[in-house]
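Q: For a teaching session next week I want to show students how multiple molecules come together into a single three-dimensional assembly. I've collected the sequence lines for a complex. Could you give me the predicted structure tokens for the whole thing so I can convert them for display?
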Amino acid sequence: MDHYKLFIDGEFVDAKDGKTFTTLDPGNDQPIATVAQAGIADAEAAIMAARRSFDSGVWSRLTPAARAQKMYDFADQINTQGLRLAVTESMDAGQTINFSKVTPLGFGANMFKDLSNYASFKFPWEEEIKAQGNPFDYGRDYIRREPIGVCVGIIPWNFPMVMAFWKIGQALIMGNSVVLKPASVTPLSALIIAECAKIVGIPKGVINVIPGPGGVLGKVLCTHKEVDKISFTGSTEVGREIMSMASGTVKKVTLELGGKSANIVLDDADMEHAIACSAFGTYFHAGQVCESGTRILVQKKIYNEFVDKFKKHAEAIRIGYQLLPTTHMGPLVSHEQVAAVDGYVQIGKKEGAQLITGGKPVEVEGIKGGCYYAPTVFAGVKNSMRIAQEEIFGPVVAILPFDSDEEAVAIANDSIYGLGGGVLSSNTARAEKIARNVRTGTMWINNYHYFGSFCPFGGYKQSGVGRELSHIGLEEYTQTKRIHVASFADASSNYTMTATMSDDKSLSKYIINLPTKINAGHGALASVAKEVVDLGGTRVLLMTDAGIVKAGLAKLAQDCLSDFCVGVFDKIPQDTDLETVDAATEMARQLKVDLIVSCGGGSVIDTAKAVCTTLKNGGCCNDNISWGRLTENPVPHIVIPTTAGTGSEVTWAAVIKNKAAGRKSYIIEQRLAPNVAILDPRMTMTLPPKMTAGTAMDAMCHAVEALTTITTNPISDGAALHAIRLIKENLPIAVKDGKNEAARLNLAAAATMAGQAFTISFVALAHAMAHTLGMLHGVPHGYACGMVLPKVMHFNVDHATDKLALIALQLGVNTFGMDKRKAALAAADEIEKLMKKCGHPMRLRDVGVPETDEALLACSIHALCDPVSLYNARPVGGPEEILALYKELI
Amino acid sequence: MIKLANRAGAAIKATLSEKGLPCSVRIEIRSTGCCDASLGMIADKAEASDLIMEIDGLTILMRPALYALVGEVSILCVDDPKKNEFILVSDKPLNEWAGFGACNIRL
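A: Of course. Below is the structure for the complete assembly, covering every listed component.
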């Protein structure tokens, strides 16, 4: 009789205490080999050998491609030993030779090669995170997947060779070292696989195989601190205990446990196929398969016919010795298993189920002994019966009737398990609908027991945790590491660090990304068609609003676009919203638009930006409200501003009203900046004086806030200061004479520069307060900005003194002899003077905002929650501070 | 036929009483999923062929075939009193995991 030894640290060794056990052939009860029986000391030696090999990097630090080459050799050696493996497996585990002879190639060598190749060429070992989803800071982030370390595989007796391939193969392919504990009654194939590994030179310690009693070894393997992962296949009761034990040292655990799967036969199924497939689903390997379809649910219309035919089919199954090629069904694994199966048959009879056939151990002619059990069928089974709820793990099937597809799904799901299942039907769509609704890890349609290297396997509910095989199974054998490289090696590159741990809230870093091409000057509008061509556009949607249409400006733009323009969307309100964006996006989709031209003020431009990103990324506008998420450019966008204030023609931001939430939402993405801005002063000449003042104060607010946020910097300061000067000098002229083209162009330039400035440096409290007035009381954005700006400048005077004093100079204030603080306050006063001079509203009542405490407190709380307030020079302490500012506008 | 360790007998009786059931349990083989079955307990009445053991007012039943298969069964109470679970081990272990996991009484 052969003697098999433990495989530890690359050598075949006897157990330290010299213990051995005998393994039996369940087909005839004859001993087939003696095997060294591992004890605690052997388990510890195996774990430490695996640890050493892993830490040495001899396998774990090979490239996946280098490991794959070795795994290919391993696979070839398995094929070489294929017949020996097949016969040994059949004798040890009772599998029919017709199955075991295909196992080494089909489930071993092939899987090793498939998954090694995948790990070499396709598995995402390293993955760049293109968009971090952090709205405040910048850096490179990437994911590294690394081997976990020492993986323990504990496998059952039903498919010992397949399970050994799965546990060893996946662990090694992903760079781990493994300790495998095969079931004590079926240890041989795993030891032959270890022999294959040794022959091909898998480094010592990378694979260790220790047959021995689960109750003893399990505790060591699951609690040892040098074990990093446990992958267990077996009973739910043992799996639960393993999970509990592993929690002591917080190991990663994957469990593949029991099942009581439903195989659903619909009334439109091909009857002959349904019978054969259901019988295979139940009786393959004598039902000792965890995902077997041991509950056959049959639609009532065909129930009686099905039961009759199934009975005949079951009775025709040839039971025999497993090495005979004529055998359909071999023995169970042990006499204990026969007793367990028979116990359930007795329970079924006692519960009132109708035993149709089988239900007893059988003898095979010419063989003395053996663990054979007749294919057994119960009909009239209720799903609440134990034989329908508990996994019998033998050739016993319960056939249950159902009326509707919904009832079939409900019965299928009425189980603590969720491992496998099937649907038999001639209507694939109907079957798929059912398959999607059953809570289980695998559903086969018109098939059963079909596995593949790239098909994940595992369970819902108490059938387990995690998956085997496929890229999902491989990922289970890795750890995920994120590596972040700050773009600025400086404390201020981390907003949270600065905001929470530093008294100086200013952020010295800045990023300039102003990709918008600017065509400015008299007649610049004519350049739009050329820009469309350069951007590859062929079908343009012109977006505008009713006022622009009425003023004739939209027609000018449309004429310049000529045949490129395939549609005009002009239903954009003063403050755009999600619904408007969605309506425009729908129109753009229907027209198959590939470029957007927006002609209008801030609301039109922001709507167009949101449409561009929604068209590119799909869904509706609310799906695309993002802050640092985009990894691809939106649909190209050309802007023709008709006001001089918003700056949106060059910014990364779009502000969209969310009416349901009662807030304005932001899309802030570098990729949102329009491709081209066309500043043609003729397009702003029709703007009435008051609106000219209001929109210019929007630009003024952008410039002043860009100078005074915590992210201010010299480059944006330059643009902002000059914008302030241009507004101060040109606004009164444009208000007085709207047709003054030079003043209009200068204001347009100022608005664009202010837009560039705040794109780099952000805006702050004045904008938070203005957004609130717009959202809650419909105040036009420019008016709201202008009104609150001087008050916020006063509020910030001690936190942005130098910058505010510089603003005073740009505004032409004679600061000679003033200290900086006085100069800073004078800047705010000068802006108020400018507003008054230009007819800008000054009080809340002027724009219809109720001046009650209640209304203003609501505004204060709303403004405090606006994220831009985080960037204010002076930290905003609470709503009472904002309330005081609003009250200054009464 | 049966050995009751520590507070197992009292715990079994308490579990049965809580549900208003007679103080009678059967030792059975129960499947707990993929592969290995284990010994368990179920509230049950005696049948004619049963082996019966009475311990401090608790009746424990076993079928002769099962007794022949596993021999004497020891019942231990799990240390954690909140769990109300038991570990059953037999002279002739049912399989290599015998006694590794705990079971509750099927009521």
